[in-house]
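Escalation from tier 1.

The customer reports that the assembly of two entities below gives different structure tokens on two consecutive runs. Tier 1 could not reproduce it. I'm attaching the input and our single run for tier 2 to review.
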Amino acid sequence: MSDITRVALDAMGGDNAPAEIVKGAVRAVQQRKDIQILLTGQESVLEKELAQYSYPGEQIRIVNATEVIETAEPPVKAIRVKKDSSIVVAMKMVRNGDADAFVSAGSTGAVLVGGQVLVGRIKGVERPPLAPLLPTLKGVSLLIDCGANVDARPSHLVQFARMGSIYMESIVGKKNPTVGIVNIGAEEEKGNALVKETFPLLKECSDINFVGSVEAREIPYGDVDVIVCEAFVGNVILKLYEGVGGALMKKVKQGMMSSLRSKIGALLVKPALKATLKDFDASEYGGAPLLGLKGLVVKTHGSSTSTEVCNSIIQCVTFKEQKINEKIKDAILKTQETEKNENG
Amino acid sequence: MSDITRVALDAMGGDNAPAEIVKGAVRAVQQRKDIQILLTGQESVLEKELAQYSYPGEQIRIVNATEVIETAEPPVKAIRVKKDSSIVVAMKMVRNGDADAFVSAGSTGAVLVGGQVLVGRIKGVERPPLAPLLPTLKGVSLLIDCGANVDARPSHLVQFARMGSIYMESIVGKKNPTVGIVNIGAEEEKGNALVKETFPLLKECSDINFVGSVEAREIPYGDVDVIVCEAFVGNVILKLYEGVGGALMKKVKQGMMSSLRSKIGALLVKPALKATLKDFDASEYGGAPLLGLKGLVVKTHGSSTSTEVCNSIIQCVTFKEQKINEKIKDAILKTQETEKNENG
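Tier 1 run:
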């Protein structure tokens, strides 16, 4: 295997495309020699953007794609119809082995649909979950699933728990990570129908370190490593994390500007505060992988700037080195064999 | 009708019972002459607690109840078996008209079950929602439902929207309040099965000001007044609000203590910051009412101190004055008549 990680990058997706995406690509290759970027999008536009920077030219190649999938487009149709879009062209490169990974700040729906339809699921994986890292007081936890797999079934959540554990151990380096299911109380009999059905299944899994229910209040304190939930709840958690954090910081700044005394104080606390709060900013942790696919697919935030794009690209090297998808493949295969043996 | 609001107060429920509950009752009657408190719980214990304070004696009366329902107890059984518990005794007073309202910091499950079984639903109300106020950058929004009604149906959510609108208009004083449904995207076709089914029903309601989907990220900014969701999601929102807020403030404090410079700054910003953050503390807004019942039932946070207990008691006066449950009764009745006429 080559030591170069080839990343197909959707240059046209996201609120700040193509400027920040291209800038992120340039920053990544300026930092790392072991990355090659295949920038998909409208050639003339991308050439103009790239012309602003000096960087090792052989590490970025433009792959022309004339169409753009917008965030509001129905994803299934968009993937089928816009065959020459930056997302479809890039994903096909992953499928054909011309790229090791795909990174996009574009339409989440299109990335999820494309991941399943174009890249394809690992055999035995029922639904590929989108799994971002959440900052906590103790470091990071993995939130799985935040994708479009709403109305999931208990068997899906059990697979999420397995895939999430592999991710936390391989990528984040957490040995024997704890797994919790998002619930509205600590007791096993609490919850909605999905949680009540899933709980005993997770308890039975010998290959994960299941610790029971986790209430939303506890998540930011970081006592549980893998936070399992269905996508609707996961999306609410991810977005509210961002919303409460942002609103509270706005409030803190307003409070600091309310008197002369506090304004002087604000000048003195600012540098320390900025450094501390950086740890609590989800965008510092790169993109969220769509796990359980036959290739690496990473979704970064729609509002990503060059920093997040660069981090997401560099993250792909670790994903490739750690063979995350092969580990998932092995784990799913092993579970299926065990189940087959148990059923006779 | 008497000008006195009679509040049956569960003196034995909550993490800080009975000390903080009794103290909250004393604070309430010290502030208001128009409240009478019926303190339910173990007589000897409550007498000892009350003996510490001086207050207008005629405004607090102990009603002996020998049993206590613990938070971890299965609520349906607890309500049935523990007939002499502080919750059951107090709720029966509301049912019999001996009290205007019930306030408890105890088991949420027992309060919800007791509300339905002992106090009873208003005719036509399918499920009574628990509706706390959330602090936002613009004031407060109502989150409805945060109760035990998980796996709700679309018709329940439509009633929540109606009851929430009445609450925001009558109690908070917001004219023609906006209503949004919690969703994972702005578009109508996004969401899980429940949201997709509920969305068109809400659009059809002529008696509410429905503005469409609200993403969790937007909630803290306060652009939508009534946030409709089923109880599992509502509970996650409420608890995460608290969790992210608490964790972030811990982080801010750590950051401020990290250098001598920032420590000096912290001293200067502290008073201003404290005042601002008080606005963003959910406990300042009293308890959450269980709407749609034949009496007033208010649940305060399990960790309530005397401040929250006192606020929740005083809130009952407004609930009574505004005849919140009668307005809900009228609205539900009107809807049923309209539906009857439409169906021929």
